[in-house]
TrEMBL record:
Protein name: CDAN1-interacting nuclease 1
Species, as recorded: Frankliniella occidentalis (Western flower thrips)
Principal cellular location given in the protein's record: cytoplasm
InterPro entries in the cross-refs: CDIN1 (IPR029404)
Subcellular localization, as worded in the UniProt entry: Cytoplasm; Nucleus
UniProt KW keywords: Cytoplasm, Nucleus
GO CC list: cytoplasm; nucleus
Cited PANTHER family: CDAN1-INTERACTING NUCLEASE 1 (PTHR31661:SF1), SIMILAR TO CDNA SEQUENCE BC052040 (PTHR31661)
Amino acid sequence: MPGMSLELYREICTEMKNFKGSARECNFYLCEKFPDVPNLSLGSIYSLEYQRRMKQNHARISSAAAKYYDRFQEAVNRGDEPGIILRIAQEVDISPALLARMILEQHYERLAPELAISVSKALISRKMKDTTLIEDRDVAYEVYLSTLHDDQYGPLADVGKHSLGQEFELKLQRIAKDLKLAFRGEEHLRLKGFDKTPDLKLDIPIAVDGFIVNWIESKALFGDEEGHRGYLKDQYLSYWNRFGTGLVIYWLGYLETLDQMNEKKIIIMSDFPSNITKMNPHCIKPPQL
């Protein structure tokens, strides 16, 4: 599948920004509006844009965390219906799980002297993952509801994204094995001392339309310019420096403009290439001494 046109991508992003409603409702709307774009691709585009918006909003909201905690406690004391954090999150345009984490931090910071505990990121993360560890019943239930309804942030969302990533990594390995390609995985490379490693390092390179592929990286997401630029800096160029040219597979599609950003160091596809050429090591002549 070729890359997505910039015009279509911008149209999708505009529809997302103008939509008023939850992430799930927006995903349903996008699937109806753009029936020719795979659902997983639309979900990935939404997730990437949502995360960027939340990063911008997070600083604004976190500076007023104490105020939102007081609002939360006032609602609990009034006996408001469950879903207090969800309603505040929708009002101020922040992820429910992110707001729940701020409220949980405030809750324990105020209890710290009484409980004689140190409020650390590890403590809050542990209680976010297992709300039965939260002593206050109302806080525990509200945090639980927030993580349950948030499909972009929080422990449940993290598990889903990790599972999708593992699924496509296993798919890549199955294809490589079916094609009888000799390769090493991430774990083997790390045992050899490499800190940044691609998903597959080919022992014997392959060629795709004449382009030599020494390694393959699997990404279970849509490749847009901002994300790809970050991966180039943090991962792909390191792979190129160590192993040579390679292939990146954005399984959920990619923006066509990415092909112009790679300086012939990598190629990008949305599936494993069908037109590969295997190299026969027995036909390679040894260098003349």
